[in-house]
Amino acid sequence: MTTWRRFERQEAGRLDYWEIRREGIRCFLRWGSDRTPGKASTMTLDDEEQARRHAARKVNDRLRKGFAEVDPPHDPAEAEAGTPVLDVLARAAGPYAPEIRYVPVDGFDDVYRCEHSPDHPMGFYEYYVLRDQGRGAVRFAVRAAGHRDETVAAFLEFLSPRRDLAFDGRSHHKVPLPGPVGSFDTALFCSPALGRACAATPGAAARVATAVPVFDCEIGDDDPEVLVDARIHGHAALPYADWGRSPYPAVDLRFDVQPSYYRPAKKFMVYRPADVRKLMDVLPGASPQSWLEVRNFRGETTRLQPDTTVSFAEVSSFLAG
Length: 321
Known about the structure:
Elements: E1 5-11, E2 14-23, E3 26-33, E4 39-44, H1 48-64, E5 68-70, H2 76-79, H3 85-92, E6 103-104, E7 111-116, E8 124-131, E9 136-143, H4 149-159, E10 172-181, E11 184-190, H5 192-195, H6 202-205, E12 208-214, H7 225-233, E13 252-256, E14 265-270, H8 273-282, E15 291-295, E16 301-304, H9 312-320
Parallel strand pairs: 9-12
Antiparallel strand pairs: 1-2, 1-5, 2-3, 3-4, 6-7, 7-8, 8-9, 10-11, 11-12, 13-14, 13-15, 15-16
């Protein structure tokens, strides 16, 4: 399921609608009525088979509730398919928004930059490395506070000859940089679905991928897409537009620590370093059966129990590799 499916139900003089689209491991939902504003949500599953089953269950649930499938809604991506992505993005800003100017970057072919309030504390620079005669692109953004022309140029030197990599059918690539970009040592290439660079602009969303410099310890060497999604979009998301930051090591936990404020996690999930500290603080006084397993970006694990004498600093060093 790559296009939207629409279901409608007429009840008490009101038209209810429900729409679903599956893309890889994600299920997108939209619903509402002719009397109320619409709502939307996204569900990210562990793999494509789970996502397919989830979508099928959702459809069957609507059919049981009296909805009937109708012609799918208009897809903006189809209408914009041949339009250069920068034109689509400029139009999407609206007639009353500040003018968006994409300026060529000296020394690089088909690379453009747009400035967004660079003198403001929250200002940033947005870069687009075009491909396919401008119909596709790889995007990254840099906060103004950490922006340095020479650092961006070093990343563009690496990215430009690899601008097609994020479109090869894989969700992501973790690639060592041949030399440091600022203090970063690794590049992360994300497909359009994973990177969500232009999710708010449906006409360009499927044609704009994401590439950013990261630290090696921030993305697991063998991470599946669902974990990378959690690392870059979840509650402990990497601030990847901040190029002046310190490393945010990947933190994967599974545990059963009783008593604690945390519900047991039987499989590894993405957490924050602060969660490790809180669980370690209560672990010495927990029940003898309690345990905590920590996994780092290399897939190495360490197991902690109430009688374990390991400091938080040692665990932090383990996470950083």
